[in-house]
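Preliminary data (for renewal application), NAP complex.
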Amino acid sequence: MADAKKRALITGITGQDGGHLAGFLHEKGYEVFAIIRGQHNPRREAVVSEFPYVTLFDADLTDQSSLIRAMQVARPHEVYNLGAISHVGYSFKDPQLTNDVTGKGVLNMLEAIRLTDPENKVKFYQASTSEMFGGLEYNRPEKGYTEESSFHPRSPYGVAKLYGYWITKNYRESYDMFAVSGILFNHEGERRGVEFVTRKITNAVARIKLGLQDDLELGDLWPKRDWGYAGDYVRGMWLMLQQDKPEDYVLATGETHSIGEFLDLAFKEVGIDDWKPYVKQNPAFMRPAEVDVLLGDPTKAEKELGWTRDVDFPGLVKLMVEHDLAIESTKL
Ligand code: NAP
Ligand code: F7E
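Predicted structure:
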């Protein structure tokens, strides 16, 4: 008898996108499985309590046998590979681990699928990134980066992701697997880790407003990013796997804003017009190589997937500040 429910396996369930995607797939009626790593993962309890419907496997992207075991039990129709060392700044501090998890981890997952899916039916999503493009210094598309733009990664993270992108394409071409890359530009929201600049800012803005913190230390303020809302982007990931043909897609907003502009909106949200007295620059948060401007062109995803976005840039900042004000108020 055919299985009634579709099954999905997620790597990276404890991260921002994993949380959004688990909720999204559950609402769509999927049976959701996920891997979680480590004998005492501090985020395990939160995942179990927020997503009681997700079946968890102890597994690690660097341990292929653990991925094979997860595949054998979950027997998923779709695999979303979101697990990675994903912090660009951190990847300079631990480049080899970044290579093992963010790069070779993709190969481990693809091989685990190939070894457990003789009928070649599993659909695979790889979390590729705009960090593969490297910024306008290297590559100057007219409207923004597309699926056809050339790559010039500027960090160990970007280099490892480029390997993940190519090995995914290679498995598609070599073994006829339904294996695709979503080339996603920055996406943020209430689940974003506080180590990333947007959440670091909205968390600090809330704490400054409530008198819990005096100032905020940041690195460079001039880089520009194409920032969207994570909830909109996981819908795009799912759409990519619902197509008949495996293809790569860019997800982006088509707008780019500096960190200074993000600061303007975030501080204004709590009634502070001039953020300069509160923000200090600290070289510890600067990177050995920076990506100057990221701007994506999502035309292909809009036309072929019917992908749209509900949250714009001001809406994103507002949502994040309001969320952090609510969380931080409980600490008073
Ligand atoms: P995130 O919040 O940093 O989550 C990363 C996830 O990877 C965490 O669940 C982490 O688990 C897991 N992980 C780390 N090492 C692992 C290992 N050895 N084995 C298995 N899992 C491991 O990242 P995100 O923002 O949700 O992004 C999801 C994916 O999209 C990532 O691959 C990221 O590189 C990519 N991406 C993100 C963006 C963005 O703007 N958010 C844009 C483009 C691409 P632990 O809790 O155990 O550390
Ligand atoms: O930095 C600058 C920093 O760490 C954004 C990941 O999800 O998106 C993300 O990578 C910008 C950079 O994100 C601080 O130098 C200044 O120019 O928030 P971020 P990211 O590097 O763009 C891409 C698409 C991914 O794929 C990644 O996985 O902000 N910046 N001061 C700072 N950044 C941080 N984190 N902290 C600061 O204090």
